[in-house]
Amino acid sequence: MESRRQNKELVREQFTRTAQIFGDYAVASRVAEAERLARMVRAAGGDRGVDLAAGPGTLALRFARQVRWICALDLTPAILDRARNSAAADGIRNIDFAIADAQAMPFADGALDIAVTSYSLHHMPDPARVIGEMVRVVRRGGRVGVLDIFVPEDARAAALNNRIERIRDASHTRTLARSEFEAYFAGCGLRVLETHVEAQVREFDHWMLVAGSTPGDSRYEEARRLLEDSIPEDAAWFHPRFASASNGSGERELIFENTVLFIAGEKT
């Protein structure tokens, strides 16, 4: 219980501190991802849904355009305010907001048609419980969709990958392997409808910036050292390399890849 409380405090601290910069990045850059997941869970005009650990509304703001109603649910007031302000600015009215725990959502069994989440399970101490909660709140035939980074099955590469992630962001718990996502879906009574994998190229400096870290601070320097050291054998499965800077300066910058899994299932 104490470890869960501490995890919640870390999550709230991290996303309160980075609400603006992370929120701006996530909402602007993840539109195509949100729309893909909406297609995968077969979002329709009569559906009621929840985006849990919604953050700045990465999914909820897009899903609201396709469903009857959606609730954006998150632990952190500051970043949920960011989502609320975006909805108001865009004139989106079929969306509500709730401060709540994804591991104990304030919905009755089978109350919803869709439950989705993005980039959240690696912040959860018990991801299986969260997926189980998503299944609980949707009706039979309802759909569950998850979008998140994942690690390889190789234990050493996964451990180094997670070490770098935790240095960057103390609220990171553990990135799952693909087999774990699939096992959790099966164990919770979900029939997989569709999966999709894609590699997302990230600039290291920007990746650190949206987590509140800049060159010179200890987190930045340690994460960069480990990532650069992993280059020869791709020991952390980030596929890091140096490339020409995107700003046209002619300088070289460190880039890497996040490998992302989209998975959608139906409650049987």
Q: What's the structural blueprint in terms of helices and strands?
A:
Layout: H1 2-17, H2 19-29, H3 31-40, E1 48-52, H4 60-63, E2 69-74, H5 77-89, E3 95-99, E4 112-118, H6 127-137, E5 138-149, H7 155-168, H8 178-187, E6 190-203, H9 204-209, H10 218-229, E7 241-244, E8 252-267
Parallel strand pairs: 1-2, 1-4, 2-3, 4-5
Antiparallel strand pairs: 5-8, 6-8, 7-8
Descriptive labels:
2 domains, alpha/beta, 10 helices, 8-stranded mixed β-sheet, 268 residues, Rossmann fold
Put simply, the count of helices is 10
Q: Structural class of the helix and strand makeup? A: alpha/beta
Assign the CATH superfamily of the largest domain: Vaccinia Virus protein VP39
**Rounded Rg:** 18 Å
The name of the CATH architecture of the largest domain is 3-Layer(aba) Sandwich
How does this model look, in words?
- The protein is α/β, with parallel strands linked by helices.
- Helices cover 40% and strands 26% of the residues.
- The chain is built from 10 helices and 8 strands.
- Strands 1, 2, 3, 4, 5, 6, 7 and 8 form an 8-stranded mixed sheet that branches.
- Helix 7 packs antiparallel against helix 10 (218-229).
- The longest helix has 16 residues, at 2-17.
Short characterization:
This protein has helices at residues 2-17, 19-29, 31-40, 60-63, 77-89, 127-137, 155-168, 178-187, 204-209, 218-229, and strands at 48-52, 69-74, 95-99, 112-118, 138-149, 190-203, 241-244, 252-267. The chain is of the alpha/beta class.
